[in-house]
Amino acid sequence: MPADVLSQPLQFVKGVGPRRAADLQRAGLITVEDLLLRFPLRYEDRARLMPIAGLRPGMTATVVGEVLSSGIRPTRRPGFRLFEVVVRDVSGAVRAVFPNQPFLKDVFHPQQQVVLFGPLEYRGSGLQFSNPEYEIVRGDTDDPEDAQVHTGRIVPIYEKVGSMTTRMQRSLMHQLMAGLPQDLGDPVPSSVRQALFLPSRRDAILQTHFPAAGVSVDALNAFRTEAQRRLIFEEFFLFQAGMVLRKRQQAQYLKARPVVVDDRLRAAARKVLPFKLTDGQKMALREIVTDMQRAAPMHRLLQGDVGAGKTIVALLAALVAMENGFQVAFMAPTEILADQHYMTIRRLLEPSRFRVTSLTGSMGAAKKRAALAEIASGITHMVVGTHALVEGAVKFRDLGLVVIDEQHRFGVVQRATLRGKGQHPDVLVMTATPIPRTLALTAFGDLDTSVIRDLPPGRQPICTIAKPESRRDDIYRMLRTELEQGRQAYVIYPLVEESEKVDLRAATEMAQTLQNDVVPEYRVALLHGKMKSDEKDQVMGAFARGDVHVLAATTVVEVGVDVANATMMVVEHAERFGLSQLHQLRGRVGRGAHASTCVLVYQAPLTDQGHARIDALVETTDGFVIAERDLEIRGPGDFFGTRQSGLPTLRVGDLVRDYVLMEEARREAVAWLDDPNEAQPLVDYLTVNWAQRFGLVAVG
Ligand code: ADP
Ligand code: MG
Q: Is 278 in the pocket of ligand 1 (CB under 6 A)?
């Protein structure tokens, strides 16, 4: 059985043994298939090498040659030793230095054939490789494998795994290739393979690890060869097929009852609406309400930049649910935000007959008990809260709609738990971190999406400037001018968990300086996450009323806070914030009719990344552009910040690099699953393996 070879544990492969198997296992490599479906880090063309005489400073090059001499060279710095190797080929000789790696004296010996790869620099005494990667391609013994596998061809370079060097892995891989059965089986259906002209799985694996002569090394290193693309496609196809399948399974559930929309309901909505909806809001609302009228539960993501006005859209959806006799749960990631939503919603619902309750972790026990009873009995129609809503004690009489604000702050499990409190309720998740196109298809492939692209009318563009700390006086002058005109300001200080105490002290001192020295005739208040909830409420309330003029805060105001009279945002140590975070912070101003300013105060010198972030922010206020930039700077893994973000663990594919393939895989997966007869074996496979294979949490 061919499948047996692939599922064979590496431990039992010749030449591996328990120790190496353990090393491989730590890297997640357990079966033969795991190893075969792991791409090399890069490729080297050892068929065509650079002659040593052709090396120039600034190049990154691979050379092969014979070790002339090697040894440890003392340096003038005490305790610092350089290991040095001189390597020569027919054209000349070059030196390589390795700082503080004295053990290399047992690795390099004269007359060995070695490969060096790395950047070249010019030092007083000549051209040298500085800390290059190296491989001993021929030792003292005359192993015929050396000539065919490790030199004289395009060779794969693997990431070192424990004790397994790249060379050992290459040998192992070569041995596995020789034992690869003709018929490997293929999870990609043959019709899809034919339609896309994909090579067979077997060929793709062979060509990925030991490319034929003449294949472009640049294409290999860009992971763009037919063979590599075919393996990436396979991974994406399985992922998307599972995603589509999950979505279809969810669509089979029936909610308690679909909502009905009539003129009475439309009139009720008009009564609570404080302004005219923008076109984007109208469109999003229409999509949402259409979903709600269906028998299958809604799973919709509402995207919209900071300030686009998602809350009112969610509230109107809530009204539709409540008018139909359902309860609504509205979950926000922080207490400040939950309280703010609660106040807004309570005010807006005043002319209606619906009752809103708030539920947060810091509520007193008696108050909480009362809230829980009201929710369970159905006296309360809508509950606005934090993740306290997820707790077991929270029971609804008839939960019909779940709204989750700033969904990236919540894990998959929390979302599922809240959903589980109703009978397949409609779910609307909202995010103000626009999701880059490249990630949306993956992280939210099982959600339908609505996007609000416009902003409410009358918004003034926010002017963003970056200033080094040394120009603090300018910043304070601007702050003063702003306050003199009756406006308010935020001054944000970073607070990271690792240095929480120090940061908190710095934030407190900053607030004191502002109050005592900078704007003594105005009121400055401090707000941070360590304060008691009612203290926070008090400060926030005073700021919202205009009793406090400057809110000195840590990032607790990052998401959602809405005070229209605040027109200046000063971010201290802007270099310590992520791009999306800065964009969120900036989004706290520019919410009213007055022009707003955002000042990013940084400590020079900036790192390249810090520079890139600040530049991006100064250049644009478009959250969608910023999201793409953030992804470029951080990479997909860190983009969402939380682990349970729903991004799959991928072996060969890269969400950004291979985006087009992901789109193709999505299309093919949808088409394939439309054919129920043909699809069954794959459906069975995915039902069992999908969540685990992609490292995702399985939630019904
Ligand atoms: P976000 O999408 O960032 O959550 P909010 O829902 O908090 O944005 O809305 C931002 C501000 O814009 C709020 O003060 C809200 O009342 C206001 N707003 C929303 N929609 C409109 C509209 N169509 N016309 C005028 N103001 C609006
Ligand atoms: Mg919001």
A: yes
